[in-house]
Each structure stands twice: as C-alpha cells, then as structure tokens.
Amino acid sequence: MSNIITLPGLIDMHVHFRDPGFEYKEDILSGALAAAAGGVTTAVCMPNTNPVIDTPELVRYVLNKAENAAIRVLPFAAVTVGQKGAELTDFAALKLAGAAALSDDGNPVMSADVMRRALRLARDCDLVISAHSEDAEMVRNYAVNEGKISKLLNIPGRPAIAEELMVARDALLAQETGARIHIAHVSTANSVEIIRRAKNDGIAITCETCPQYFILTEDAVLTHGALARVNPPLRTEADRLAIIEGLRDGTIDVIATDHAPHSAEEKSRALTDAPSGMVGLETSLALTLTALYKTGLLTLDEIFDKMSRNPARILNLPPNDDYIEVDLDRIWTINPENFRSKSRNTPFGGAQVCGVIMRTASRNKEVFTVTLN
C-alpha cells in the first residue's frame, strides 16, 4: 500500500562533511549523496575540519566544491580562530564569502567574555551563532551520560548539568546583547525547560535536537557500544520524554541530524577510545516519521516545520523549489551497508521504519530516485 506525497526538501542545519582534512570519513560530494537519499536538499556543514573553516578562503572552498554536489551545501564558519576559543574570526568577511552561520561546534566557547563579544559582533552582522553547550572541563572526553550506565561500566560520565549551565549562560548572554543564539543538539530535560523560559522572556533563542535524543536512552550503549557514543551523550528516559514534549509545544524548533561519520576502524575501538558521533542523513526522516508522526505525537506539518521551514527561517535562507516525494506508509529496514555515506556508524541498523524517499529534487534537477526490490 502506498501513500506518496510531495513535500518541501529537508534542510539539515547540523552536519559534518569532514572536508577538508578527513575525507576518508566523508567529503562534500559523498555527504551530499547521502543527504539526497534521505530527502535533505540543503545541508549546512560544521567547521571542525582540518584546517578549520575560519577564513573566507575556506568558506569559498566549501562553496566551490559544493557546486558539483547533488544538493545545496552551505558552510558554518568558526566563531574563533582554529576553534580555540580565544580570538574571534572576521565575521563580516566570513558572511561576505558565503558563511550561513557561525559555530565552534565540537569545541564549546568556554569564555563567557569571548562569547559575549562574539554575540555582539554576530548581532551587528545579522548572523546566528550555533552553540555546542557543554562545559568542557566537566565533560572532558568522557563517553557516556553520568548516571546509571557510567556507574555500571565504572567509567566517568558527562553530567547533564554541564550542558544546562552552558545553555543558561548563553541564553543570558543573548538576552544581554540582543543577539540570536541557537542551541545545538539539546539532550536534557532541564535544557528544554531553560530554553522554554528564555523564549517566554522574549530572548532570541532557538534550538535543535536529533532523532537519537527522542528515540534512544543511555541504555543503548550497553547494546550498541561505541555506535551509541555521541556528544552530548544519550540521556535518561525522563530526558527523552522531555525532548518529545519540547518538540510538541514548540520549545524545540528544529530536528537536525548532527551527521557525524567515522570509519569502521575508529568505531570498532573500545567505548572509551572511540570517537563520538553517528551518521543520520539517510535515516532521519524515516526515524522521525516512525517515532513522532505514526504515533500521533506530531503532525506532518509540524515535522516539516522542524525539518525544513524553521531551519530556513533561523538561517535566513532564501526560498527555493526543492522538493521530495515520500511514501509515508512503506515499511523498510535500515541497512547501513546500503548507505551512500562513506561511513556506516549508526545504532539504528536493523530497525524497521516507515517513510521511503521516492524522489529528491534540488536546484531544478532530480538528484535521487529510489530503487525498490
């Protein structure tokens, strides 16, 4: 039975295409192919590459390479030089070169003074800053949430308060400066509540979460090991439910992927030694439809607000004619071996989901058509 509808192309405002410097994990062209297969027609890639995307020349490198990509690919530029949290980059020059927004994602801006100055400058340049909200001293390179799983495994964990303190700090700084702040990958109940209160106070704050935070809990680490290691970590069932409530009441504006490819060798390491992150471009819509739409938690229109319209609004992107055709009722099994991405690191392999991308069109051309057995 089919139920094929046409919808706006998805906009994923948080991906890692690893280009330049880590192309063995992903590059702009392979990442774009993965995006097209998942119905994403615009992807905005984070700057934690090698070298860091912190100059106009590197912004133009991404845009020039993206001219040959299947979809629209836009770059974040770094807030600080080398993402070291000290010297601010040239925001005006980065915007002129084509940067869509600013972020030091992966490296929280620890200095409140630096973030305050960054927000003032971003306000004057009409750019939004996307903040990775974790206190780096509290989380270090720990692998899991601080709680029952960290205790069971006898390893240090990343406490929820490390995220919540930084969310509160950046909300207050946005209020004081009149700047726009976007909180990346929200994962805790208290973070949702802090953002809810900030919005009620009129602060220009938006935020995102990812499918892993409204589907999985910290228990997934016991089953999937390093494949379930992400930053911030998977949290508790209470946090998962609070994320869903934040999506339902509009506190959480965006569903992104934080698509973070790694090699099979890297993810085969011990939990404490493996890098954090999972791929998500090819599964995000199906996981969201399965978890939120088919269960009646969100309407289709609400999902596409969070996966298309709201990201465009937050990033001030111009309208386009990109579209996807989706069979809402077709069931399929996630098989990482079929991914277009160079990487396979997902804990969702083997999951049965609904929603098949039948066709993706970007920049007035068809860039993906499904092949069904």
Structure description:
With 373 residues, the protein is α/β, with parallel strands linked by helices. The protein has one domain (4-369): Metal-dependent hydrolases (TIM Barrel, Alpha-Beta Barrel), CATH 3.20.20.140. 36% of the residues lie in helices and 19% in strands. It contains 14 helices and 14 strands. It has helices at residues 28-37, 56-66, 91-97, 112-125, 136-139, 148-153, 160-177, 189-200, 211-215, 220-224, 237-248, 264-267, 284-293, 300-315; strands at 4-8, 10-15, 40-45, 72-77, 101-103, 129-131, 144-145, 157-158, 181-183, 205-209, 254-255, 323-333, 352-362, 365-369. Strands 2-3-4-5-6-9-10-11 form an eight-stranded parallel beta sheet. A hairpin with a 2-residue loop joins β13 (352-362) and β14.
